[in-house]
Amino acid sequence: xxxxxxxxxxxxxxxxxxxxxxxxxxxxxxxxxxxxxxxxxxxxxxxxxxxxxxxxxxxxxxxxxxxxxxxxxxxxxxxxxxxxxxxxxxxxxxxxxxxxxxxxxxxxxxxxxxxxxxxxxxxxxxxxxxxxxxxxxxxxxxxxxxxxxxxxxxxxxxxxxxxxxxxxxxxxxxxxxxxxxxxxxxxxxxxxxxxxxxxxxxxxxxxxxxxxxxxxxxxxxxxxxxxxxxxxxxxxxxxxxxxxxxxxxxxxxxxxxxxxxxxxxxxxxxxxxxxxxxxxxxxxxxxxxxxxxxxxxxxxxxxxxxxxxxxxxxxxxxxxxxxxxxxxxxxxxxxxxxxxxxxxxxxxxxxxxxxxxxxxxxxxxxxxxxxxxxxxxxxxxxxxxxxxxxxxxxxxxxxxxxxxxxxxxxxxxxxxxxxxxxxxxxxxxxxxxxxxxxxxxxxxxxxxxxxxxxxxxxxxxxxxxxxxxxxxxxxxxxxxxxxxxxxxxxxxxxxxxxxxxxxxxxxxxx
Length: 510
Ligand SMILES: Cc1cc2nc3c(=O)[nH]c(=O)nc-3n(C[C@H](O)[C@H](O)[C@H](O)COP(=O)(O)OP(=O)(O)OC[C@H]3O[C@@H](n4cnc5c(N)ncnc54)[C@H](O)[C@@H]3O)c2cc1C
Hints:
Number of strands: 24
Pfam family, one: DAO
Protein name: FAD-dependent oxidoreductase
GO cellular component, one term: membrane
Bound molecules: flavin-adenine dinucleotide
CATH superfamily of the domain at 408-510: Rieske [2Fe-2S] iron-sulphur domain
GO molecular function, one term: 2 iron, 2 sulfur cluster binding
Domain Rieske: 423-510
């Protein structure tokens, strides 16, 4: 089987990955016991690894593919002082003190990125911008008022404004001064350089399939070697294999276009609407050419048609902007936590010394950074004021109960429907080149993809994580699981966890 050389977890090429650094592999690890193994080379893993290594801990960072392969390579990279879970929502679930702490964490994550850029002189297109959120109807105006009150209550500066640099007609708008944007992979590259300079060990193309406690030492298993460590951090966005977070976080896909405008006039701001699902725009100079980034239209992974989402996003963009060409389009995945706040800390139901971070919603730049700091403090046995708020073992069912039921009933539906309700009768013959489909062959379900040469790639569609049936994602040419968001390429290789085993090939199991 050929090795995976795509630089991110999908077929589409995003603007950040073009100048990707070459893979680093320092060789086999041997029998050494590391102070900490960090699994996953996105913003969370690299932030944690750098902090730990610099504090004198001996660390190893293991990445299944290459640095930035996951969502950090597909992010739209806004750095904000507000979050998808609003401060008033946080207050109703976690009290005023909880909401204040959450605001502090978001701010501290923001500041950590800024200080890393300064300290390590990372050239990553970091720019300060004003952020605008506008309302187009009465309900959204009410929502804006709540967001305004909630932000002021926790001390986050925000004000009403009458001028927003958007062609979309709106009724009211809020503005946050001093927001920021950057190029996420240039930032990761800077962190990686600092990490290696501090003596850190990096192993790319190293998928960790599980961690067990063996003779008092945590032992991480990989296809070619075992890695021993006193502590392990799952910075994998979603911890691998079956775990509690499969029921506490819902995977969502989100879409981005980068377009060139005929006018050459680009907004010098971060602009968001209040629709559900929402849209946002910002600009970024890529290869000397300013482009408008338009994103949003999020939906649960494996549930809606990604190509339709791209078509809708492009239609929306062309309605309001005079587009001369679409330069990039890509999508990526994030996780919505059931009670609104991320889970960062000790991994529930796992041996002592295993930590994790997940459920950042669309705010992983700040929350991934703060997770890196919080997890490095936990490994170093130092106090951290966010440890209680983000504790993954918390039980929080109050306001989020209905949401929990909604997410879980949906997962439960797929557990049942995928096993017993499959009535697909389509045949392989009608499969077009470049198309993937669930078909039935000899009474058995097959995930079939026909490549441009006409060859059929036939897989067992049963997700290796929890046995749901995967769906075709025509935009990223991947098989996406509607239950917990595991994703596979056309050969069945894992692109996104929590699965750690590839899909079986059709016929192998006979
Ligand atoms: C389209 C989109 C736009 C977004 N925009 C913003 C934004 O503007 N601002 C913001 O703050 N947030 C945004 N987010 C969210 C943010 O991008 C993510 O929360 C963040 O990048 C997650 O970082 P991470 O390091 O935790 O995970 P990832 O970047 O996904 O990194 C995890 C890494 O772990 C590796 N891995 C997984 N399993 C294993 C294993 N078993 N063994 C070894 N390695 C493994 C993966 O290959 C991957 O590279 C956006 C998300 C999306 C989808």
